[in-house]
Amino acid sequence: MPLKNNLLQLAALVMCFALAACSSSPNNASKKNMDPNKGRYSLKNDKLPLNPPNVDNVPNATPKYEPYSRRGNKPYTVYGESYTVMNTGQGFSETGRASWYGEKFHGYETSNGEPYDMYSMSGAHKTLPLPSYARITNLENNKQVIIRINDRGPFHSDRILDVSYAAAYKLGMLGKGTARIKLDVVYIGSVAATNSALASAQDTGNHYIQLVASKDKAKLNAMAKNLEQKYQVKTRVQAANNMFRLQLGPIGQPELADKLLNNVKQNGFPEGYIVHE
Q: How far is the C-alpha of 184 from the C-alpha of 24, rounded, in Å?
């Protein structure tokens, strides 16, 4: 009898442990899935945000000097593939396919430890040092943004870059999901260089882009508001010879004016030209 009782007690004890494990596992798993430090996500698949804010007026990232992060810049291996991070992004340029990432990763840690914000102008690259700034041009529609790269990815052999939801929206690639892009690093190597870059980007020049002329000033004013939002550049409507001229500017740097001119020519203003005053 004692032996039988001992066996029954042992069986009951084993059953108790089994039930305890079953009841605690879901809670533990949930915590792991919700913990960014564990690299787990509450969503299985990425998706568009359900009720996104209007990101039309989200500004481009502003390039400035930032020391490279202590996190996210060491050699690493993902899916059996090893990657070595570049010592510097200075002069780096690349052409290839980009994708975007959204709701699944929103709020979780990026590779350099910052929370991912899909409504900011940010991105992920496999080997550029973090953080890096880059000008991204969608080669399929010539739309352009500047992003701050603070994450790693995308880990697909046919893609070179992941951009945030906001950046993808501005690049016109949300619907298709991917786009062929050109990446040009905007390198700022010191605090002094930051100040110099900001100063040169101010409206110190006298370069304008002439877009269209019309007698209908109200129509041009309406167009001006849309163009300011689209290109993030000021506009003006000037009277000249019983007509009104719609112009983008002032633009401080001639090279920026040239790039913007190429952009507007391919987006509805083929007769555009630069005005120097």
A: 50
